[in-house]
Design brief:
Blueprint: H1 2-19, E1 23-37, E2 44-63, E3 66-89, E4 94-118, E5 126-149, E6 156-161, E7 169-184, E8 187-198, E9 218-229
């Protein structure tokens, strides 16, 4: 009798686990709009720039409607900033002050840790909200720079390897929302809108015109994404 009771408990637990997957995995792609925010005098955002990402996603379920969403994103984040600058003129070495405008083209691998809350099914879909954090590691950085001297002389344009001008890590606060559409069985599509706000300044070194001023900019972005979970 005790053996029969034990077998019934094991079968019941196995059935419950089978009904609710502890993990669910998928793939993600997105497009984004990036921009710079700065609290330093003279440092100004110059509009938004398109980027994108692709990656792997995983839901680790805490309960039926609550999960930790993680994985990795290969993030292409582009944003433009202008700031006071100083250049030297070769071969005489005279210094010219002016305004530099840089479009940074950065590539990160971002590791998100996000708390996802879902509704029960409403009609044929489920809605969700997200809050969490991201940690990005810089893979590459280039910059398209345009320098305009204050004296009205001709401007200088060049493309630079900007890896040494950008901090290696990027920490961010994440908010998201969206909808899940079932396809078949446990397979579904997740459509989302995500706001990713950098916590700290991502630019390094001092301003060339005023060394007492630190280069300052936080590269933020809004993202439209789609994920396929299995």
């Amino acid at each position: 009798m005790r053996k029969i009771f034990t077998i019934i408990i094991i079968l019941s637990v196995s059935t419950a686990i089978a009904q609710q997957k502890p993990f669910q995995f998928g793939f993600k792609g997105s497009v984004n709009l990036g921009w710079f925010a700065s609290d330093a005098t003279g440092y100004n955002n110059e509009g938004t720039d398109f980027g994108g990402s692709w990656g792997f996603a995983a839901d680790i379920f805490l309960m039926d409607n609550y999960s930790i969403t993680t994985g990795f994103d290969v993030l292409y984040l582009n944003s433009t900033i202008s700031y006071p600058d100083q250049k030297s003129s070769l071969p005489d070495g005279d210094n010219f002050s002016g305004i530099s405008t840089r479009k940074y083209k950065t590539k990160y691998i971002e590791l998100p840790v996000i708390f996802t809350m879902k509704t029960n099914q409403i009609g044929k879909v489920r809605y969700f909200g997200q809050i969490g954090f991201g940690l990005g590691f810089l893979l590459s950085a280039k910059a398209e720079e345009n320098f305009i001297p204050n004296d009205g002389s001709s401007h200088q344009s060049e493309t630079l390897n900007a890896y040494d001008d950008v901090r290696f890590t990027r920490e961010s606060f994440i908010l998201g929302a969206g909808v899940e559409v079932p396809i078949q069985g446990s397979t579904y599509l997740r459509f989302g809108l995500k706001y990713d706000n950098a916590f700290i300044n991502v630019l390094k070194d001092e301003n060339t015109l005023d060394p007492e001023v630190k280069n300052n900019g936080k590269n933020n972005f809004m993202e439209l994404n789609v994920s396929l979970f299995f």
